[in-house]
């Protein structure tokens, strides 16, 4: 099924990038890419989004695993239905991203974040994310749009 392939590509693709970032010489340094619009770095996020609950990594891991399991069950059930291509695509992105980040929490005990957007807004510049986070965000918005149709 194409949707399962998308899920695997999100998880696998982001995992490959995370591995390369971890093995790179970036350390705490950052490097500008994409005509200085993006900053590539190596940040270990032990908390949830934006470092929320970073002092409680075990709770974050358990919540992350639980939510990944629930959304995966919903996704697999949806795959058994006919039609609903937009919803399936949305959840393929969300589950792929969630699985990659959950795997990080299980194996590394932190999530590797590596991208930030260079903009004039300081608050936005401080946000460091990975491709999985981006897929989760895009998939979530797409799912809401598809459900509202």
Describe this structure in words.
The chain has one domain. A three-stranded antiparallel sheet has the order 1-2-3. It is an alpha+beta fold and 149 residues long. It has helices at 2-23, 57-79, 85-107, 122-125, 131-147; strands at residues 31-33, 38-45, 111-117.
Keywords:
149 residues; alpha+beta; 3-stranded antiparallel beta sheet
User: Could you say how many structural domains there are in total?
Assistant: 1
Approximate shape: globular
Q: N-to-C SSE series? A: HEEHHEHH
Average pLDDT number: 92
Q: How large, in whole angstroms, is the Cα Rg?
A: 16 Å
Helix % is 55-70%
**Uncertain stretches:** none
Number of strands: 3
Give the SSE map.
Blueprint lengths: L1 H22 L7 E3 L4 E8 L11 H23 L5 H23 L3 E7 L4 H4 L5 H17 L2
Antiparallel strand pairs: 1-2, 2-3
Helix pairs in contact: 1-3, 2-3, 3-5
Summarize the structure.
With 149 residues, this protein is α+β, with helices and mostly antiparallel strands. Helices cover 60% and strands 12% of the residues.
């Amino acid at each position: 099924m194409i949707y399962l392939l998308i899920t695997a590509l999100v998880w696998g693709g982001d995992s490959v990038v995370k591995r390369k970032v971890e093995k790179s010489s970036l350390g705490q340094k950052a490097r500008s890419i994409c005509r200085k619009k993006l900053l590539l770095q190596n940040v270990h996020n032990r908390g949830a989004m934006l470092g929320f609950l970073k002092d409680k990594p075990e709770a974050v891991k358990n919540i992350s695993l639980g939510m990944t399991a629930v959304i995966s069950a919903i996704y697999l059930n949806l795959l058994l239905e006919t039609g609903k291509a937009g919803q399936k695509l949305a959840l393929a992105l969300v589950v792929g991203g969630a699985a990659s980040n959950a795997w990080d929490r299980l194996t590394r005990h932190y999530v590797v974040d590596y991208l930030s957007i260079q903009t004039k807004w300081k608050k936005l510049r401080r946000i460091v994310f990975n491709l999985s986070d981006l897929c989760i965000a895009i998939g979530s918005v797409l799912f809401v749009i598809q459900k509202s149709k």
